[in-house]
């Protein structure tokens, strides 16, 4: 989808900047070294105070744990400390919980962009980052990073694989990335009420058949009205769990031969739909799952004993529910369950596994930024040593202390009396965003959470999850934008109809034929070409 925008002098200057960047070396590896005469402060990433005391605007999601505490990140201890450290006042704009995509589209259509936008520019923006730059929505960052972002530049020069991830095939850098540590790549998966299992004499399910037994028992013996629930808007249940047992996925994925496939038209996808249709008909899946578009609905299901299983986050879900649930019922216990398979002892074909670069939490600078240099320096602060400490651990002496050289959260974080640990963390740090994640950081407060991550790691997801940071060319992006929106819309419509029984599964062949007629093979080929190019970077 091409977004038409009125040309103004700012856009012209941005285009000239992009052209200069392209004429120079687009790779940081070949960029000229910083002038030796630069001050120590600038080389270490400290902001030039002559340019501070100015204001930036930033559109970004707010952590779900903050919604009941503050309305704006500027009001948090983290926001105040960031302003103090950088000297820059930031006016934050937060989309409503569960409405980020809709409100982002409205933002783009409004033609009134903030300076900085935190969004998934790879898979959520139609056409990806090359298209976003061609549409003059965001600007290329090569020259800016080279000259004004010494901390990010140093990181990319020292981590060649990460450097590959955060630029396009043409060599353009377009975001300040969210970078996960190696021990933070797996954080979401199936979980189940262990106290219910113990009461019913059942074990943690590992196969599809065992899951059926457990969900049926939850319905019949625990009175669960929605034994299995999930947030459909994020495809958490249907993307990684249950469907993966049939060696496919509800999305594009990479098969065992390294070829890109579109899972929803695989023959075995029909088997997965048959399973979900059966479970839905028997009342084992939340009948309102398609309406669960925010975390509040999920909270209500899991904490009211309406549901005994879901697929969600280990910290923002399991940890939060354990803290709240045990206040009402000391026996309340959630544990992780393996990604299910068809046969006992099989290794799961796919599951949730992220890459070092997480597009969803990364920030781009918009073409409307009145002071791109200030925005770059503000964003680069998060990659400095001091900034990294703030983003990962908060304020020294308040949220953390350094014990034997290792940052440790203080008792204040876990014993506030007013807020739980997750809520305190969300006030003092930025759980997700453009900064280098620290492997020493952990939001987990229960041993069940640590064990859960080890369980969820036991999949072949690393082989089959297709990276979200592939960058089709502008021409490819135009083709994808034209085809993929209609394909996805039709797939979603039919997926819901198949599961709820509105459409009989006898029509699956007609459905796959229709998707093929809509051009899915062209889209798959584009992804394959982009994947091949990425591997050659």
Automatic annotation (TrEMBL):
Recorded coiled-coil stretches: none
Protein name: Extracellular solute-binding protein
Signal peptide bounds: 1-25
Database matches in Pfam families: SBP_bac_1
Parts of the chain that traverse the membrane: none
Keyword Isomerase applies: no
Organism, scientific name: Paenibacillus baimaensis
Keyword Nucleotide-binding among record annotations: no
InterPro entries the record matches: Bact_solute-bd_prot1, SBP
Phylogenetic placement of the source organism: Bacteria, Bacillati, Bacillota, Bacilli, Bacillales
Assigned keywords, A-Z: Cell membrane, Lipoprotein, Membrane, Palmitate, Signal
């Amino acid at each position: 989808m091409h977004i038409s925008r009125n040309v103004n002098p700012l856009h012209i200057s941005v285009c000239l900047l992009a052209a200069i960047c392209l004429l120079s070396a687009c790779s940081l590896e070949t960029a000229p070294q910083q002038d030796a005469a630069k001050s120590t402060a600038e080389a270490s990433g400290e902001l030039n105070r002559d340019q501070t005391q100015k204001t930036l605007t930033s559109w970004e999601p707010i952590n779900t744990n903050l919604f009941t505490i503050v309305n704006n990140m500027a009001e948090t201890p983290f926001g105040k400390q960031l302003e103090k450290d950088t000297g820059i006042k930031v006016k934050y704009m937060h989309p409503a919980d569960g409405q980020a995509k809709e409100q982002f589209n409205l933002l783009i259509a409004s033609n009134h962009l903030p300076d900085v936008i935190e969004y998934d520019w790879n898979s959520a923006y139609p056409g990806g980052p090359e298209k976003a730059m061609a549409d003059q929505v965001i600007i290329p960052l090569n020259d800016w990073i080279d000259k004004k972002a010494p901390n990010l530049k140093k990181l990319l020069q020292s981590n060649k694989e990460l450097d590959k991830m955060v630029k396009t095939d043409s060599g353009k850098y377009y975001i300040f990335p969210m970078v996960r540590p190696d021990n933070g790549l797996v954080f979401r998966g199936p979980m189940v009420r262990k106290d219910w299992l113990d009461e019913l004499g059942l074990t943690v399910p590992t196969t599809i058949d065992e899951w059926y037994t457990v969900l049926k028992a939850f319905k019949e013996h625990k009175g669960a009205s929605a034994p299995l629930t999930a947030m459909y808007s994020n495809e958490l249940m249907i993307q990684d769990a249950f469907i993966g047992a049939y060696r496919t996925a509800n999305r594009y994925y990479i098969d065992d031969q390294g070829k890109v496939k579109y899972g929803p038209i695989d023959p075995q996808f029909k088997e997965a739909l048959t399973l979900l249709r059966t479970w839905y008909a028997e009342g084992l899946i939340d009948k309102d799952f398609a309406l669960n578009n925010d975390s509040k609905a999920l909270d209500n299901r899991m904490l009211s004993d309406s549901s005994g299983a879901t697929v969600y986050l280990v910290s923002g879900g399991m940890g939060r529910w354990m803290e709240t649930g045990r206040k009402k019922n000391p026996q309340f216990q959630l544990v992780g369950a393996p990604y299910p398979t068809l046969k006992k002892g099989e290794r799961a074909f796919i599951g949730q596994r992220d890459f070092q670069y997480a597009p969803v939490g990364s920030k781009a600078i918009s073409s409307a930024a009145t002071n791109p240099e200030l925005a770059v320096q503000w964003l680069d602060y998060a990659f400095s040593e001091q900034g990294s400490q703030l983003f990962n651990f908060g304020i020294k002496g308040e949220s953390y202390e350094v014990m034997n050289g290792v940052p440790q959260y203080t008792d204040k974080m876990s014993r506030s009396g007013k807020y739980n640990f997750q809520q305190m963390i969300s006030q003092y740090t930025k759980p997700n965003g453009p900064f280098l994640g620290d492997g020493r950081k952990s939001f987990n407060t229960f041993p069940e959470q640590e064990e859960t991550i080890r369980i969820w790691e036991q999949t072949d997801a690393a082989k089959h999850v297709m990276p979200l940071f592939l960058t089709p060319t502008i021409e490819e992006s135009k083709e994808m934008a034209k085809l993929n929106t209609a394909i996805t819309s039709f797939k979603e419509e039919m997926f819901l109809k198949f599961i709820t029984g509105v459409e009989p599964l006898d029509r699956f062949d007609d459905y796959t034929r229709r998707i093929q007629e809509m051009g899915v093979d062209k889209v798959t080929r584009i992804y394959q070409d982009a994947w091949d190019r990425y591997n050659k970077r």
